[in-house]
Amino acid sequence: MQEFELRASDFGLVLMNPNQLIVGRGTAEHHPMEDFLRMDRMPHIWCSTCGLGTCLTAFIAAVEESTIPREDIVVVSGIGCTGRAAGYLKFDSFHTTHGRAIPYATGLKVANPRLKVCLISGDGDLVSIGGNHLIHAARRNMDMTVICVNNFNYAMTGGQAAPSTPQGAFATTTPYGAFERPFNIPFLVDSCGATYVARWTALHVRQLTISIKEAMLHRGFSFIEVISPCPTVYARRNRLGSGLDLMKFYHDHSITKNFASTRECDIKFQQDIIVGKFVQKDEPTYLDAMDAQMKKTLGAKFVPYVGPMDPGADSGRTKSDART
Amino acid sequence: MSKPKRGPVLTGAHYLDGDHACAEGAIAAGCRFIAGYPITPSTEVAERLAERFPKIGGTFIQMEDELASIAAVLGAAWGGARAMTVTSGPGFSLMMENIGLGVMTETPCVVVNVQRGGPSTGLPTLTGQQDMMQARWGSHGDYEIIALSPSSPQECFDLTVTCFNLSEKYRVPVMFMMDECVGHMTEKVVIPEADTIDVWPRRWYRGPKDKYQPYLPDKDGVPPMVRAGDDHRFHITGLTHDERGYPIITAECQHLCVSRLVDKIRNNADDLMIVKEEQVKGADVVVVAYGISARVATKAITDARKQGIKVGFLRLITVWPFPEKRIRELAGDVKCLVMPELNMGQMYREMERAAGGKCKTLLVPHCGGWVHDPNDILKAILEGAK
């Protein structure tokens, strides 16, 4: 059985030093990442040259590189093309309702603080229907990693306009061109208190992987926007060519500016895209702040959260039912 | 000698309103996670738990809206917590989509609705029983649900525990349909010793981790459950799914998936049924009522009996699934079934359907805002006895 290594260059990706990135090792009989994928669900539903495969690859590579125990990682998705990510990743995974991935994940984290909660969802899901939850999770500095795959439209439903659609771009619901101002998503979450904010494109596999790893190891609300090609609806309707053409566009038009002011990260139709790690700071998480405040006010009377129920227990009683 | 410290359960006799009794019931049931959003007249439940939880190892989070509250509760339940949210009519409406997710993913949790008058903002501070059908059918799609209705603060305590037990046994969100009157009524509430309160465990899966299938049911149609983070690598989805939890978008899978969700409740309806009967045997008229309307009906029943009318009383505690078997039996024995409720006829239609024309059925409607005049119920009893 011949062993092989997959390198980014094998996929025709042009990186600064492509041989640095080994995206997987395996044998011809086995997919190099099959330990992390639900192989019994393949083939996936995503279109060829869609950026979502790259995002999943980067996510798995980041998990492998991090030292986080595998069983602690849970993946939560909302609805849409990206919403299907949870179903393909072999972790405890939750495919929730449209827009509600963040509060669902909040419940998981607060009820079971040991969990490393990761969300992979789309721009429509997180920023439009889920926008209220996004800003509040950022405000709380809720300890979770949100990967927002932005393909500039609602792709699953056939290419409708989203709050991320650049002005002038065409979508089925903006047949004469989008005229609403889109969100500058990194600025939005930054201004709401996110403590880790980055943006990359699906081309920046290495940087994206590093960012996801950093975000997962970060304590607090970490957010990564991934600009991702949608060849089937967005690119076709806007005559932008194939997914590969969009990757070339990202190559020519991405400007890396680490710690750039997020205020300046607006995306205009087919113009330069500022990418980079914009924010990284240490601030108390929701759970830190809660504990500190309770200790301050209640002193010795404060009983920290007992944690979830014990699956080994035969009784329905909680641990704290024993007299304290 | 120092006094022994109290456990979390507030054992003893107290003077509590229904909202606070419900909060204490949740604590006694082992609930240690609440997500909520303020809304009259349910806020006191959340407020009490926000105050109590940090002293007993629970966690309360005030979410940004009701959609978030119920989503957080579902997430918390899969995180391994016994979880609850509390709301009233408008918030209940906002929760509906994710209550459906809870049904579809078979997530145990309790949703408390302290009902007020509607539609819309309606009567925020005044009572109603107008969400009874919303509790049953409010989320889209076809499903069965469990709902209980208390008539006193004592029952707000007792039945909150029952709600949690049933939600764990049947793995379904359980609706606790209080109303403003019961929620704000203050009475004696006796809380037993913690170790005498029957609290049922979650249906934990104990097989090999790699063999776990989230929707492979036990004999009673309900699958066992695991907790996130324990290396089962399970997937759950709101999409129609097979035993593995994988989405399968076919009519065949839909049939298997939905019929089991429905059958696990319908086939166990007898086990779920809690009703209280009083002088039903030999009665000409039976008053069927729930919640605060059942309290008001007792005055009319007493008055009718003074006039020599043989009146029985059937108080519904389980409102969903509807106790249709018992109603069908009664309909064959009595002249008339009378139902007062603080709406224009919701549970009444179920009663009428279950009676199947075998006896007369009378509705005593009321739009809410206040309780019935007992004389209106009395008139219906007299009319029914004719």
Specify the overall morphology of chain A.
globular
Strand content of chain B: 15-25%
Total separate domains of chain A: 2
Remind me, CATH topology of the largest domain in chain A? Rossmann fold
- Percent in strands of chain A: 15-25%
Q: Could you state the oligomeric state of the chains shown? A: heterodimer
Order of H and E elements of chain A: EEHEHEHEHHEEEHEHEHHEEH
Number of strands of chain A: 12
Largest sheet, spatial ordering of strands of chain A: 4-3-5-6-10-9-12-11
Low-confidence stretches of chain B: none
CATH superfamily of the largest domain in chain B: Thiamin diphosphate (ThDP)-binding fold, Pyr/PP domains
Task: Count the domains of chain B.
Answer: 2
Query: Residue share in helices of chain A?
Result: 25-40%
Shape descriptor of chain B: globular
CA distance, first residue to last residue of chain B: 69 Å
What number is the mean pLDDT of chain B? 97
Flag low-confidence runs of chain A.
11-20, 320-324
Short description:
The complex is a heterodimer of chains A (324) and B (386). By secondary structure, chain A is α/β, with parallel strands linked by helices.
Structural write-up:
The complex is a heterodimer of chains A (about 325) and B (about 375). Chain A is an alpha/beta fold and about 325 residues long. Chain A folds into 2 domains: about 50-285, Thiamin diphosphate (ThDP)-binding fold, Pyr/PP domains (Rossmann fold); about 290-320, no CATH class. Chain A contains 10 helices and 12 strands. Chain A has helices at about 50-65, 85-90, 100-110, 125-130, 130-140, 185-190, 205-215, 230-235, 245-255, 285-300, and strands at about 5, 20-25, 75, 90-95, 115-120, 145-150, 155, 160, 195-200, 220-225, 255, 275-280. Chain A has an 8-stranded mixed beta sheet with strand order 4-3-5-6-10-9-12-11, sandwiched between helices. In chain A, strands 1-2 form a two-stranded antiparallel ribbon. A two-stranded antiparallel sheet of chain A has the order 7-8. In chain A, helix 1 (about 50-65) crosses helix 7 (about 205-215), helix 4 (about 125-130) packs across helix 5 (about 130-140) and helix 5 (about 130-140) packs across helix 6. In chain B, helix 3 (about 65-80) packs parallel to helix 4 (about 90-105) and helix 10 packs across helix 13 (about 375-385). In chain B, helix 2 (about 45-55) links the parallel strand 2 and strand 3. In chain B, strands 2, 3, 4, 5, 6, 7, 8 and 14 form an 8-stranded mixed beta sheet that branches. Chain B has a 5-stranded mixed beta sheet with strand order 11-13-12-15-16, with helices on both faces. Chain B folds into 2 domains: about 10-195, Rossmann fold, CATH 3.40.50; about 275-385, Rossmann fold, CATH 3.40.50. With about 375 residues, chain B is α/β, with parallel strands linked by helices. The longest helix of chain B is centred in the middle third of the chain and has 18 residues, at about 155-170. Chain B is about 40% helix and about 20% strand. Chain B has 13 helices and 16 strands. The chains are: A alpha/beta (about 325), B alpha/beta (about 375). Strand 4 of chain A pairs parallel with strand 10 of chain B, so a sheet runs across the interface.
